[in-house]
Amino acid sequence: VIIVDPAEHDPLLDLVAETRANCVTVGRNTRALSWVDNDFFKATTEALQHLCRAKPSRPAFFLTETSSLYVREELSAYLDWCSGTGTEPVIIRSPSVRMDAAEPAITAALRDPARKFDAVVTTLDTLAVAVERSAQTLGLSIPDDLQILSLADSRYLSVGFPTPVTALDLQPKRLGEAAVDLLVTEIEGGQDHTQQLIDSSLMVRESTLPAD
Q1: What is the pLDDT along the chain (212 residues), one digit of tens a residue?
Q2: 3-class DSSP state for residue 59?
Q3: SS3 of residue 156 by DSSP
């Protein structure tokens, strides 16, 4: 079995334990199972540093949930970065990953006259799309008035979009290949309980200011 993005109390992990099936997760797990994953803490920190290279930025963090371990890693990195830079954290929650649910949440935050952020970091590509659509509706210039960065890339962020969005390429193909290799090794009686990190890369696009 290969499980992608397991939650902390994922019932699929319970089923694997009951059946003793060979299993590898794409994303870290809290069980004694092999996994492959990105270093989300490091990648999020580097993404936040990118936002501040051209000018000091006050990023908000836009998410939907914290049950996924990767989201918790990203949020932890954001809070740690805020603490280290003396930046007040701003956390915005969407009730759903759907753009039609996310857009009202980010629009309300952007309209707030006491708004304390000039950049938005999102955990998902759909949230980044919602931010851009909301910014356009409100007449905000991207990236001058508002920088946008997604911690997950997709073709929607780079093709056919008014302002292509800077995003983390999580190397999903390499993650999948590594997971299959680990699983085959375990099935054939090789080493088990292996942990493997795959490097991500920041795809810099027009939604963030260029570095000096």
Answers
A1: 999 988 878 899 999 989 989 999 999 988 889 999 999 999 999 999 999 998 899 999 999 988 888 999 999 999 999 999 999 999 999 999 999 999 999 999 999 999 999 999 999 999 999 999 999 999 999 999 999 999 999 988 987 778 999 999 999 999 999 999 999 999 998 777 889 999 999 999 999 998 76
A2: strand
A3: helix
d(CA 12, CA 3): 8
Coarse DSSP helix, strand, coil percentages of the chain, rounded to the nearest 5 percent: 40, 20, 40
CA distances from 57 to 107, 119, 121 (A): 19, 7, 11
Asked if the peptide bond before residue 172 counts as cis, ω within 30 degrees of 0, the response is no
Q: Which amino acid is at 138?
A: L
* 201 SS3 class: strand
CA–CA distance, 154 with 4 (Å, rounded to integer): 17
Residues forming beta bridges with residue 59, ordered by sequence position: 119
Query: For residues 4 and 24, what is the distance between their CA atoms, to the nearest angstrom?
Result: 9
Widest pairwise Cα distance in the chain: 61
